[in-house]
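The following record pairs a protein chain with its ligand, 3-phosphoglyceric acid.
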Amino acid sequence: MQTDIAALLSNTAPILPVIKVEKAEHILPIANALAEGGIKGLEITLRTTAGIKAIELVKKAGLDVVLSAGTVTRPEHVDALADIGVDFAVTPGLTPDVLERAQRKGVQLLPGIATPSEVMTGLAYDLRFFKLFPASIVGGIGMLKALGGPFPDLKFCPTGGLNLENFRDYLSLPNVFCIGGSWMMAFQGGEPDTSEITRLAAEATGLLG
Ligand code: 3PG
């Protein structure tokens, strides 16, 4: 049974930063900078080999954050995350091999969908929370409104192409429980620019009602 992912995020801003670290040790300064700007949800992607190690570092540090892994594309990723213990794992798409491994290992999944057929596959696995990806390419606001017709009880986290200018339009939709984006990730000379990350995070959370 999929947990209520919206409830997991209820004590933080409904903004999930999509984080790609080249060095695992960058993650704690990034997480602290985001928290200072009011964002305590993290999606640490497995796009780099540093991703898993970064997730482990956050876990070990015992930060007061909602810890998710992103870009989970293979069953072996799920195995690694089950060992570490994350709040949930985000996938760019929905595949039975990853879903079934996650169910078997007790890892909560927020799977990506881009079509009604993928939503229907998710329904067969009792899923109610999905990521819409890549949101701006597959129809954005119009797509989410359209999905609300046949699937009124489902909730989405649109990600891909969101930014400071448009994220509130997405969050105002009744079937959107959070949004994801990478726009507040700032690096300079290969190092995280923590004051800029805090500024960008605070700029976003400051716009929330
Ligand atoms: C991703 O998985 O790449 C996220 O959707 C981030 O997209 P963005 O870089 O367009 O915010």
